[in-house]
Write a structure and sequence with these properties.
Elements (H helix, E strand, L loop, with lengths): L1 H17 L2 E2 L12 E2 L2 H14 L5 H21 L6 H18 L6 E3 L7 E2 L2 H21 L6 H19 L3 H21 L8 H19 L9 H7 L1 H16 L12 H9 L2 H21 L5 H21 L2
Helix pairs in contact: 1-2, 1-7, 2-3, 2-7, 2-8, 3-4, 3-8, 4-5, 5-8, 5-10, 6-7, 6-8, 6-12, 7-8, 9-12, 9-13, 10-13, 11-12
């Protein structure tokens, strides 16, 4: 946290000097003045330096390069070399594919979601599922980064939740990694909670999304954290559900699912209540609820937790509808 707090003023100045600025527009952006979009540099640097002094385990050699590759996609876009959303997704799919083949960074078990026994996947099915699921969750953090404090707040809550669960399951290394991401996100929030002084940029949202997604995969992987896969999904219910509803809405209206628009939940809530601060507090309260479900309902069968996820999904959809 303290490293992020220390590095962000430097990143702010760097953004000004290099003209990596997010300018207001009348289409999608709701901020009122130009602000640097370079906080991701400070967050990535603070995370790397933090874990440089940690005892080294293989997992960090998977997570850091994976997250930095996604960071690079976002940073190129932030500097003004615009990359179409579909190409970002395809590049991300390539990154996941490489790591899924060369490392244990893949989803192989889903738990007993249907009540008929644990769902396990062979290498090929696991590869296909991982490319889709991991890439989508990483991108979901980029999609919720449209209002001050939301992406950072969700990352903080997710990191904190995974830290608690991994600590309770005696995986102290993963608990420390999760806590490190929570700390970096909290440090960023000192500068990004409304009114923001700096933005994550695509580089920052992709980096945090990749780190949190990686932590969730390893936390739920046999031989690592011991967290149930469905617990990880519950913790990330808000970004996952928002992405799912957005894709469904665009699909039913024949819009390109990769196009940007103002139909995400945070935009709809803000449009109704006219306050960024209240919007973020409401959505973070929802994220707290989802995380508490994962923590305190752990002993329920997987298929019940899976049902609870779908309840969360429809709660997000209900809010999406009433704030339309």
């Amino acid at each position: 946290m303290f490293l992020t707090i220390s590095f962000i003023p430097i990143a702010h100045k760097l953004g000004r000097n290099l003209n990596i600025i997010d300018f207001p527009d009348k289409k999608r952006k709701i901020h009122q003045k130009p602000l640097p979009r370079t906080a991701g540099i400070a967050i990535a640097l603070s995370v790397i330096l933090t874990f440089f002094f940690f005892p080294k385990e293989k997992i960090i050699y998977y997570l850091i390069p994976f997250s930095l590759l996604f960071f690079t996609i976002g940073f190129v876009d932030d500097t003004g070399i615009k990359i179409r959303n579909i190409y970002k997704w395809l590049i991300g799919a390539g990154i996941v594919l490489i790591f899924s083949i060369l490392t244990p960074f893949k989803i192989q078990e889903l738990g007993n979601l249907m009540g008929f026994g644990k769902i396990s996947m062979n290498f090929v099915i696991s590869l296909i599922f991982s490319i889709f699921a991991i890439n989508c969750v990483v991108h979901s953090f980029n999609l919720i980064d449209g209002i001050d404090g939301l992406a950072g707040g969700v990352s903080f809550l997710a990191g904190l939740s995974f830290a608690f669960l991994n600590f309770r399951n005696s995986d102290f290394y993963l608990a420390c990694v999760s806590a490190g991401i929570a700390g970096a996100s909290l440090g960023f929030l000192f500068y990004n909670f409304y009114p923001a002084k700096i933005f994550l940029g695509d580089a920052g949202s992709f980096f945090l999304g990749a780190m949190i997604t990686g932590i969730s995969v390893f936390s739920a992987k046999t031989g690592y954290g011991g967290v149930k896969p469905i617990q990880a999904v519950l913790i990330l219910s808000l970004p996952i559900s928002d992405m799912m509803w957005t894709v469904l809405r665009r699909g039913f209206t024949t819009k390109n699912i990769f196009d940007s628009d103002l139909t995400h939940l945070h935009y709809r809530v803000f449009k109704k209540i006219k306050s960024q601060r209240k919007t973020v507090v409401l959505l973070l309260a929802l994220s707290v609820l989802f995380s508490l479900e994962a923590i305190f309902l752990e002993n329920l069968p997987d298929y019940i937790l899976f049902l609870i996820f779908w309840i969360n999904f429809f709660i997000v959809g209900f809010l999406d509808k009433i704030f339309k």
